[in-house]
């Protein structure tokens, strides 16, 4: 059997990297020859989880077709979020928890998608269904992914399956998920030593919304006023990125992980800003607006923007 690469989306988060490692292990147990790789370096939060449970960061790839003929995707399916030459390889498997968009294959494939808070929750189900034991360190990494994606089960994306998975994986990993979870989230909130250009690219995804190229980035913090003090510099970095990459709108969501409130900064044309205001029924003031209770890009940001751009 030929080797396949397993990876998550660009600008990988803890779910993208953690679930790639988990799925590669799972598939290798099933007789496949896979390697978990990444489409970028791990962020501070992910590095904390990898170090905590004794994993090395997966190697970073720029392209896949020069190594393999076939790949497995986790935590994404949209081509613009994947490896640059995704059109040159066969996608044999997908495990995801996002919308399905612009995804086409020439051959049948295994595709599993569920509306849960994290792809690692689906992996936990798959291990259980197959009757396979989850190693202690891998359980800790999968736990980290769920905590990250659900903001310690506080995100509106959280389901009963996520809660059950967290409890079960924490038991296997031998950690208190509340205590560990808070430490993990705080590890990812150190923004003081990073430039605005780095911060707007750490956790950013591009979306095709009715023909518009929309970039949505998110930063987690425990000090929202400190982050917003850099607003002017964020706006310049976002405008420069938009010009360089042809973004019709760039939205930065700065989220306080302790109280689950966010502030949005938006750059783009007057038309794009008007669409944003329609989507959230809020007026931008000097390119920003408070979004109380908004923490999930997947569930609370992309759907209203999609509807507004199509309206």
Task: Set out the fold topology.
Layout: E1 4-7, H1 14-29, E2 34-36, H2 44-52, E3 70-74, E4 90-96, E5 110-113, H3 119-130, H4 136-150, H5 160-173, H6 177-187, H7 196-202, E6 204-209, E7 212-221, H8 224-228, H9 231-245, E8 249-256, E9 261-268, H10 270-280, E10 288-291, H11 297-310
Parallel strand pairs: 1-2, 1-3, 3-4, 4-5, 7-8
Antiparallel strand pairs: 6-7, 8-9, 9-10
Count of distinct strands: 10
Largest sheet: 5 strands, parallel
**Oligomerization state:** single chain
- Strand content range: 15-25%
Question: What is the global morphology?
Answer: globular
The residue fraction in helices comes out at 40-55%
Strand order of the largest sheet: 2-1-3-4-5
Query: Which structural category do the helix and sheet elements fall into?
Result: alpha/beta
Would you mind describing this structure in some detail?
The longest helix is centred in the N-terminal third of the chain and has 16 residues, at 14-29. It is globular and about 55 Å long. With 311 residues, the chain is an alpha/beta fold. The chain has 11 helices and 10 strands. Strands 2-1-3-4-5 form a 5-stranded parallel sheet. Strand 8 (249-256) and strand 9 (261-268) form a beta hairpin.
């Amino acid at each position: 059997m030929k080797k396949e690469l397993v990876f998550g989306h660009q600008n990988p988060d803890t779910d993208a990297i953690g679930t790639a490692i988990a799925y590669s292990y799972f598939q290798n147990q099933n007789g496949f020859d896979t390697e978990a790789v990444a489409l970028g370096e791990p962020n501070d939060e992910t590095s904390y989880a990898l170090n905590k449970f004794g994993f090395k960061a997966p190697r970073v790839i720029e392209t896949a077709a020069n190594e393999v003929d076939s790949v497995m995707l986790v935590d994404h399916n949209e081509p613009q979020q994947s490896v640059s030459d995704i059109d040159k390889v066969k996608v044999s498997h997908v495990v995801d928890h996002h919308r399905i968009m612009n995804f086409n294959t020439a051959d049948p494939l295994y595709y599993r998608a569920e509306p849960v808070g994290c792809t690692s929750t689906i992996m936990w189900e798959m291990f259980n269904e197959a009757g396979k034991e989850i190693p202690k360190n891998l359980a800790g990494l999968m736990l980290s992914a769920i905590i990250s994606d659900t903001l310690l089960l506080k995100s509106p994306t959280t389901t009963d399956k996520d809660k059950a998975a967290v409890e079960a994986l924490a038991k296997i990993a031998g950690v208190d998920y509340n205590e560990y979870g808070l430490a993990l989230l705080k590890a990812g909130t150190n923004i003081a030593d990073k430039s605005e250009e780095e911060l707007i690219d750490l956790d950013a995804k591009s979306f095709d919304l009715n023909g518009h190229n929309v970039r949505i980035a998110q930063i987690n913090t425990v000090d929202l006023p400190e982050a917003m003090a850099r607003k002017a510099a964020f706006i310049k970095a976002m405008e420069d990125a938009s010009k360089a990459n042809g973004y019709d709108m760039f939205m930065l969501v700065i989220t306080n992980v302790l109280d689950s409130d966010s502030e949005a900064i938006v750059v783009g044309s007057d038309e794009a800003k008007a669409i944003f205001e329609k989507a959230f029924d809020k007026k931008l003031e000097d390119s920003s607006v408070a979004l109380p209770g908004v923490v999930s890009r997947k569930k609370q940001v992309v759907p209203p923007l999609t509807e507004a751009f199509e309206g």
